[in-house]
Amino acid sequence: MYGMIATWHMAVEGITKGRKILKDRGCAADAIETAIKEVEDFEFYKSVGYGGLPNEEMEVELDAGYMDGTTFDMGAVGAIKDFANPISIARRLSKEKVNNLLVGEGAEKFAHKEGFQRKNMLTERAKIHYYNRVKEIKEQEIKPYSGHDTVGMVCIDENSNMIAATSTSGLFMKKKGRVGDSPICGSGFYVDSKVGGASATGLGEDLMKGCISYEIVYLMKEGHHPQEACEIAVNKLDEELKERRGMVGDLSVIAMNNKGEWGAATNIEGFSFVVTTENQEPIVYLTKNVNGKCIHERASKEWLDNYIKIITTPLAREGGKIKK
Ligand code: SD4
């Protein structure tokens, strides 16, 4: 038995590649790294890897996390610049006994020494988004942007080893050095091969307040199905934050247990995710929260076509000429 689940529709090509590795009896670690690299490398996904949107200083600072649910090895990078695949650096760091989470210059130094590929991650398209946002910034607060957010995945292979991992450029126009939940073990991701794994996307500052990925794995350990565990964790954190703070950011999660059963939940409109199992080719679902229950609906061909059209539409710089 094998399976994979991922946040957001953008993971579908990666999940398709990862599934092939699992089908050929490859390991969950290779499947998940390959799947996430695919998302990192695609320039039109503006919240992960190459093409990711920059911080307020127009620099692309990336976060990634990786955890092995069998050994509990964990590695992560925060605010790393100019490396092609943060996920691979996070996986490499998971092999260390200490120094597992490196940020900024220290992460870059490590990646350079280990021979990881350097790349200028700021695309022309991302620059146009930046300049346009600078113009509108006075009216807009920084927040996750719908449909193009952190990629988070959970994977189980035929040997029942489970891995969870994430990669993101974080929030558009964030402060230099800001790190969200994605590289934080227990918040952006968590996995225990004896139970299952989870990953989150949304407003990192709020997801961290509930250590939400750990919470979901804990709920699964207590006997909850992944769907129930996701709903309980999202609804509870949503309510707590509204009660204590009068507001709550975007909270969306996915989970899979060690039987390959899966779940997803959200407190926003328009959260999509991708899932595949041994008996099921990758499917994209859209989910919505109706009175605490999350209803998943398979994305239609029109929706999928429209999504690609939107993310690849040429952008105009306000007052400038059209670029790619
Ligand atoms: C962060 N959780 O950096 C990430 C961003 C994200 O939907 O997932 N946006 O806070």
Structural commentary:
The protein has 324 residues and is of the alpha+beta class. The chain has one domain: (Glycosyl)asparaginase (Glutamine Phosphoribosylpyrophosphate, subunit 1, domain 1). Helix content is 32%, strand content 27%. The protein has nine helices and 15 strands. A nine-stranded mixed β-sheet has the order 4-3-2-6-5-1-11-12-13, covered by helices on one side. The protein has a four-stranded antiparallel β-sheet with strand order 7-8-9-10. α1 runs antiparallel to α2 and α2 runs antiparallel to α3. The termini are far apart. The relative contact order is 0.16. The mean pLDDT is 93. It binds N-hydroxy-L-asparagine. The site of N-hydroxy-L-asparagine has 13 residues, from β8.
List the topology elements.
Layout: E1 3-7, H1 12-23, H2 28-41, E2 62-68, E3 74-80, H3 86-93, E4 101-103, H4 104-113, H5 124-136, E5 151-156, E6 162-168, E7 189-192, E8 196-202, H6 204-207, H7 212-221, H8 226-245, E9 251-257, E10 262-266, E11 271-277, E12 280-290, E13 293-298, H9 301-312, E14 315-316, E15 322-323
Parallel strand pairs: 3-4
Antiparallel strand pairs: 1-5, 1-11, 2-3, 2-6, 5-6, 7-8, 8-9, 9-10, 11-12, 12-13, 14-15
Bound molecules: N-hydroxy-L-asparagine.
